[in-house]
Amino acid sequence: MGVEDACFTARRNPLAEEKVSHDLEQVAERIQQALPSFLSVAVIGAFGRGEGAVVETPDGFRPWNDYDILVVTETREGWEKLGELSRSMAKDLALPAIDILPFTPEDLVRKADTMLVYDACHGNVVLKGDTGVFSRLPARRIRFEEIRILLLNRMVCLLESPPRSLTGEEPDLLLHPAQVSKALFAVVDATLVQERMYVTRYRDKAARFQSIDGPSEELKAAVAKALSFRLSPAPQSWDERLWFLARNFLIQHVAKVLGIASNGDATHVAHAHWKHRFPPAISLVKALIRGRRPKSPCRAVECAELLILAAASPEPNGIDTALLARARAFLRKVKDDPTDGDWAQMSAQAVALWFELCHG
Q1: Is 3.30.460.10 the CATH classification of the domain at 3-129?
Q2: What's the predicted TM-score (pTM) here?
Q3: Between 139 and 252, whose confidence is greater?
Q4: What is the DSSP string of 302-337?
């Protein structure tokens, strides 16, 4: 889709559309100036699908979602500048974040079966350059490995905003429902990919998920609540049972993807998952400590996943406490921040480690 025909937000408010369009015009211009081999720049993600969330403030509308920007270049020249450029633009435009995702044309073809590229093909607005970059990609199904990466990514969302019963503090009324809704939609995405029913837009995802016989009515009701928040975020107090519901389903889906037998108990699944995956995760963490970074997000997720699960299980019942101790020891060493094992501190360190691994 071209920018002249685009609607970026779910609210369709003219002032919100004007704000987003103005932001994206500046982002595209600065990216084009920074990259000598620029071919195309597109907004993808929620704003690329016309589902971007905005909130109204005394100063006007501002984006709630990050801007996800996919850039296609002939070569990788200049890519090293993009991290600083994204931070600079986010600061200048007073935005939460701008994620710049660079690809060569060959990269796009090679990664056409990833969720990122699939979503980009089915929900984008080309801001500058070649408008046919996505239409020329081969049609492929999303590869199964993408489910595991997505689910483990979304575990971080739950760790960033735990419920009061785990921390003793009331969660933020915007951050908490935002992170729980992300986790719930990860369960939706995983289910739809497995059922060969995957679609990109929130409303379509929720509708297809509601039509499936397997998920419980409790989970379907939670997804409906998450959909409402995703499209129109506002401060809300959510029942903490939704957090635990999302966590349990995430862990059980991970067990299913890895072929681990589950008795329905999330702690049992976590225990089995650690025994299944811990040695390679430890090796990758050791490599990080020695200064060698993982070369891909997939490997970074493998490195962090068990440490995230360790922090997500506050009670050691049924858990291999020796493995838990090793995970916490590595967290302390990597972050150089001694802790007494408090759940909130451990989860915060796990989140910090994950972002360090995946985003630097």
Answers
A1: yes
A2: 0.80
A3: 139
A4: HHHHHHHHHHH----TTS-HHHHHHHHHHHHHHHT-
